[in-house]
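Quick question: what would this complex look like in 3D?
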Amino acid sequence: MIFNSLEFAIFLPIVFLLYWFVLNKNLKLQNLFIVIVSYIFYGWWDWRFLFLIAFSSLVDFFIGVQLSKTDTPKLRKLLMGISLSVNLGFLGFFKYFNFFIDSFASTFTFFGIPFSPTHLNILLPVGISFYTFQTLSYSIDVYRRQLEPTKDIIAFLAFVSFFPQLVAGPIERATHLLPQFNKKREFNYALSVDGLKQILWGLAKKIIIADNAAEFANLIFNNADQYPGSVKLIGAIFFSLQIYGDFSGYSDIAIGTSKLFGFDLMQNFAFPYFSRDIAEFWRRWHISLNTWFRDYLYIPLGGSRGGLSKKVRNTFIIFLVSGFWHGANWTFIVWGGLNALYFLPLLLAKKNRNNIGVVAEDRVFPNAQEVFQMLRTYLLVVLAWIFFRAESVPHAISFIDGIFSTSFFTFPSATYFAGQNLSIYTMVACIIVFFVIEWAGRRNIYAIQHFNLGHVTVKWSFYYSLIFCIFLFMGNEQDFIYFQF
Amino acid sequence: MKLFSLKVFLFLLPIFIMMFSEEYMLRRIPNDYTKKREVMLDKEQEFQVLSLGSSHTYYGVDPQYFDLATFNASHISQSVDVDYILVHEYLKNKKSIKYVTLPIDYQSLFRRLSKGSTNWRMKNYVLYYDLAEVDNFKNNFEIMNFNYKVSLSRLFNYYVRGKDEVTSDQKGFAHIHVSNKSDLQLEEELRASAIKTAKRHTAASDEHFEYNTQVLRDLAKELKKQDITLVLYTSPCHSSYVELLDENQLSKTLDFANSFAGEYDNIHYVNYLQNPIFKTRDFSDSDHLNEEGAHKLSVLLNQEINKLEKAI
């Protein structure tokens, strides 16, 4: 079931009403209900993979219980090893099996040894990377004694499968989300209104910006050799808008939906395209994954302690692993590596924590230097996204090669973009309005959170206008990009 | 919580009212489906030939050139399973029918309307032909099958500009006028459209083949019971299109058509795919005839039916 579907529009109100009106007196029943509806939500794609989630959850639950019973370091390590093997084993098998087979075959062929591997026709379970990391965080935290293991299996199953964030995050930490399942939940009017607003903004990002930008990006990436460099660059910019609108839109809907049920999820995007350097970008993009890597990989590797070479090594490791997490393709690994390279000068110059706060925090407009910094960062990010979007590394290289050719100076006339759902002019207008709203709301969790619209008539008019725009500019429905991860 | 639910309900109420009004108004726009269904239901209107099929029939079979009273009941993208349902549901109103014509084209056995990219058209059969379609809830609504922009433009066209959505004539045929472009220009356009069309019509797999051939067998049996002859034909297409077709898919189609015709004595099959009487100027695009081409095809089909009439 996807958020922008009719099924979800029917599912959500029913679940909401039952949750608050029928089951509000009993916390355990509420949690059980969350498990059931979350499994229905997930099983809508493919019910067979429910066994995978259930198994993975049960393994980590029992490992947590066992960890609490023993102080023997060897046994604790063994239990942690089992959790890692099961979770990463599933992830490795479902997501990376064919990739490794292909890479082995290429290596053998390179050395002149004929090798024809057998491919398995493996379906990738939706969201496996997300819930695997979430359940792993629990085992690791219990192993590190940073979290008391839960004895409540229903609460644990609900924590792993909580439907708003099950398939594409935010990847919650057990320390943050799990206790919320053990606490009586009271309906909070203000929180629920805030949740609805966040859902609305998420839908606008997904349906108006991402789905329409996807059409332009697909047109240009799929027929790259027919376009001059200038249009190719615009294609890459469209992809950057697609992936931002798509993923941050999903996160907003997930967080907003959770608020309706009385849960607080972590912020996943903090206006990353207004970043002044790459380090700031990575503090604002897919925050839940990047902090996961920081806490469970970067810091255990030594983090920024030790010599410069260790810092550089650790930085490269987390960027490459992050790339690999996204998918079994060299394009993602190159994308990760490229971002590590971008990061390197800041790290060497110890400037990676120069821009911590919100840009132009106490002003309406940024100054010239900030504009330059934001543009530079954005263009670097766009360049890296080309690898993320391309079918293969050679495809990405030839695409970039096309941008940096003399055809870059060809005027990108409207005829290049004809035949899409929205005209290029309407699309550009939508993007401008979108960025103006995002800029105005950059100090908040999501752009329209604290818009001071005064009287209720003005507020409702604004929301109605937004809904009207969603209907009017609705693009052809595209799957959420991050479902494939 | 009650206040919240009430406020959300009040907020959404105008949106629901707007959606229901839009749905109601869209359904009231006269279209080919409502019009053809009326004819199919009207027991007073007697036909002897019923022409089924997709756009190849819609633009390619003109009933006025048939000696027997003929009605064109085809629609764009109508697949053989939908043809079968129409026959099954509506033929009881048309006791006079002696012949059913049906194209068996390159893509006919490899696609189903409900499974393809134009599956939104299924709602027309659910809404206007009363054919139950349970596997897709969306087919019960106009507004769920178009984006809002398209719906607004349809409403504007009908309620402001007075343009309905009926594109076929009284006998169900849709005219495409002969182009006044030069032969060379036309040839170029047909070649360009052939590339896209052949690609679109070439199936990635033969997953629907078994199903469609079974549907045709069921259709033949049902028609046999009512003593109706099924005239199968492969529609004429421009050479630029035929050259680009997948040999395997084409031969599988033609082989089936020939052997199927041999299986039942109430089936007659004729292949016009590369019939030389069709020239470039007879086509509106690489696989659709214009009214001049439709004239030729209708005359040919009429000749076949006349031959069958004489043989009785």
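Answer marked as accepted. Chain A has a mean pLDDT of 90.
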